[in-house]
Amino acid sequence: MEHLYAKRVQKSGNSDLAELFKLSEQPDIISFAGGFPDPRWFLDEIEEIAHQVLTDKKDIALQYGPVPGFTHVREFVAGRMQEQQMKVTMENILITSGSLQGLDLICRVFLDPGDLIVLEAPTYLGAITTFVSYEAEIASIPADEDGLQVDQLEIFLKNTLRKPKFIYVIPTFQNPTGRVMSLERRKKLIELANEYRVPVIDDNAYGELRFSGEEIPSIKALDTENMVIYLGTFSKIFSPGVRLGWIAADPKLIEKLILFKQGSDQTSSSLSQLLAYEAGKRGLIEKQIAVTCAGLKQKRDLTISALQKYFKDRATWNEPEGGYYVWVQLKDQVDTLKRLTPAVINHKVAYVAGSSFYPDRRGENCLRVCYSLAKESDIDEGIRRLAQAFVNA
Ligand code: PMP
Can you tell me which atom of ligand 1 is nearest the CA of 103? Predict the structure, then answer.
């Protein structure tokens, strides 16, 4: 049937995401690949919550719900955002099936084939795949230790003949680098968004997972003229299996997004929404965040020590203050994508190659090390295997 496929299929040649999910399922492999939470962080109380929801609220939990999500769930989400200094109410919230669906719906509303969008490079592979599937033209602005280089963005916005539809950023504990955009740059980004009237998508999947250092306000919290579209998710603070996220945006935009949500999956799982709400109401999401952050800190420490032990003089890396990822840049010119299959097969270790996070496949000698899922007792050995995989490369 291939000849019947849409043109966009030819452009979406990148199946890295599917590959990496397959890889991380093999039991003898130490995986630093997929951005999965450690299942030991999931709530012990979930069984009791599920029992209660399915007993007391069975009729609602197993039924279709309203397209934008349950009102009390939207209020709960808005309430949590307000606690993080973001000025939103229930009307600003659309519950989605994961934040990746949120991004997909935003693309449906904003993008015609060939439209220009801006992102920081490197960035989240799932986002690149989504943008490519909508046939967007992607402009990459470089990022450094302090995140997106806003000066470069300014030059781009000044000189571009076509106006971008939006700027996509992951300001806090970025995927794949684990870096945080500085406050100064966040403010400048808002200024530029206001000046050039280009919306910013603030993907804050990891923002609540800080285990050291100072809190920085989200881009959404700094938004002065309603130019920021916020993407939130329960995946890293509760469960990715419930597939629950949200968009926070201007109610007029939410209205349009709802139209496409209806045509996509009509509404997000009622059962999932009630589980997340009940866990939140009991204060258990905050508890899970605390457990997750403590676990992540321990794993970050083990990862950094192992990198110092096995990669000293051979690579540079950052020391993340939260989130799941360390970005490792090898000093030798090694193509980490070509090395991936031998690393998995011969050395039983998995990671994601740096080039997967660049729309133009740069970042050859880089790799993303995700430390959230590997067992504490496997981290040193895993990094040792990684080092071996790059010897004589
Ligand atoms: N944004 C970023 C930056 C991510 O890393 C992820 C998942 N790893 C997502 C969005 C999607 O998350 P979900 O669809 O599970 O909410």
Answer: 10
Residues 189 and 248 in one domain: yes
Q: Quote the tokens at residue 53.
A: 């929801």
The CATH number of the domain where 291 resides is what?
A: 3.90.1150.10
Closest to 359 in 3D by CA, of 36, 124, 193: 124
**Is the minimum distance from the CB of 99 to ligand 1 under 6 angstroms?**
yes
Range of the domain at 259: 45-282
Number of domains, the chain: 2
Q: Is 39 helix (H, G, I), strand (E, B) or coil?
A: helix
Task: From 259, 282, 305, give the residue that closes a domain.
Answer: 282
Binding site membership of 233 for ligand 1 (Cβ less than 6 Å): yes
Most distant CA pair in the chain: distance in Å?
62
Question: Tell me: the pLDDT tens digits for 158-168?
Answer: 999 999 999 99
Please write the tens of the pLDDT for every residue from 277-335.
999 999 999 999 999 999 999 999 999 999 999 999 999 999 999 999 999 999 988 99
Instruction: Place 392 in a pLDDT band, splitting at 50, 70 and 90.
Output: low
